[in-house]
Amino acid sequence: AEYPACVEQALRLLRSGGSILIIEHNLPLVLDVCDDLYVLDAGAIIASGDPREVAADPAVVSAYLGVAVSV
User: Fold this and answer.
1) How many angstroms separate the CA atoms of 60 and 46, rounded?
2) Residue 54: how many CB atoms within 10 A of its CB?
């Protein structure tokens, strides 16, 4: 996937062994970039773990996606 320069720079940092915190609603980007995902709703963590599993979590779907998506 093609991303803006700031995302490409973050990806280079990750590939070199660094860590970053991303606050993002762009699900395809999150699934591409993240090793671990935490989802908050009203300031509370409602799901965490493998990004694809978290994206399929019913609480996450209800809070953010509205409908189930294929991940």
Assistant:
1) 7
2) 21
